[in-house]
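sry for the spam today, last one i promise. struct tokens for design, 284 residues
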């Protein structure tokens, strides 16, 4: 596996692969790999001839009071996990390489970025769209893999690829969970033992709504369903709801009734400091 911080060298390695007729898959990440990241890499490995993983903690997608400075990092551990998963190249640029003096361009996807996580994190998706557009131009992948855990991000990137005419297939990968159902996340590393056991309440609330809609064939009224989910989370002494919403999977618009391809998505703050997100589909 090649570990390469330079844009020029990365480009020339990828050029040589492409000249040999090979296809390239890209997995953009911020590191601290868990099974969720590795699932994206595995899927890329079975789809494309070569897999490139970008490892870059992107400062522009963090707000001023967010966790950029303490974001968990383990470069050596990440390299060995990626190597074992069959990754061909890790692109790991310095911040100055990506945003050197005079960087003045940003990419904003409208509407899709206004609700859900965008409401609480106003600069987040412009940071994400900008870095992903830059990575697409540096790597020039045939495929790019994104987790459904960040399903608003997946919708934003799908729109960006359409609007800016990138010739890249975007592949969504299902959420990988801990045995008890907690969605894997690099931020789970912040949770102490009590917080970890309480954090599962978000997934439980989402599942109880899914169960009501799908298994019980109960109400499809979003207000009633959201109330059911909220009550569960509000019982937790340490978890506070940031948002809980039932939205159309593609437009991300809130839905009054569950019909077609809807998802329930939520974000909680654990002890006011650790923000966790999750979502489940409300269809089979
Ligand atoms: P991050 O390093 O947190 O920016 O995540 C990099 C990629 O991994 C994103 O496309 C995430 O959606 C995806 N990802 C993170 N956690 C999971 C998970 N539990 N299951 C599937 N994909 C995930």
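last one done:
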């Amino acid at each position: 596996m090649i570990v390469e911080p330079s844009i020029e060298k990365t480009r020339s390695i990828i050029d040589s692969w492409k000249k040999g007729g090979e296809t390239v898959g890209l997995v953009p990440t911020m590191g601290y790999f868990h099974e969720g990241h590795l699932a994206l890499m595995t899927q890329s490995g079975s789809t494309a001839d070569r897999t490139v993983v970008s490892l870059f903690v992107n400062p522009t997608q963090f707000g001023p009071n967010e966790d950029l400075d303490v974001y968990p990092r383990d470069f050596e551990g990440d390299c060995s996990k990626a190597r074992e998963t069959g990754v061909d190249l890790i692109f790991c640029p310095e911040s100055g390489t990506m945003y050197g003096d005079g960087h003045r361009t940003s990419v904003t996807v409208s509407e899709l970025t206004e609700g859900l996580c965008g409401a609480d994190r106003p600069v987040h998706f412009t940071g994400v769209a900008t870095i992903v557009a830059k990575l697409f131009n540096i790597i020039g992948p045939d495929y790019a893999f994104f987790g459904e855990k960040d399903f608003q991000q997946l919708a934003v990137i799908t729109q960006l690829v359409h609007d800016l005419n990138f010739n890249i297939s975007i592949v969504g990968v299902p959420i990988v969970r801990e045995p008890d159902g907690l969605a894997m996340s690099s931020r789970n590393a912040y949770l102490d033992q009590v917080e970890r056991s309480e954090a599962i309440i978000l997934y439980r609330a989402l599942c109880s709504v899914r169960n009501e809609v799908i298994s019980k064939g109960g109400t499809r009224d979003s207000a009633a369903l959201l109330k059911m989910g909220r009550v569960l989370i509000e019982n937790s002494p340490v978890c506070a709801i940031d948002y809980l919403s039932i939205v159309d999977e593609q437009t991300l618009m809130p839905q009054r009734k569950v019909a077609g391809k809807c998802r329930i998505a939520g974000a909680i703050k654990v002890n006011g400091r650790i923000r966790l997100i999750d979502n489940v589909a409300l269809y089979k």
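The CA atoms of residues 269 and 275 lie 4 Å apart. ok im logging off now
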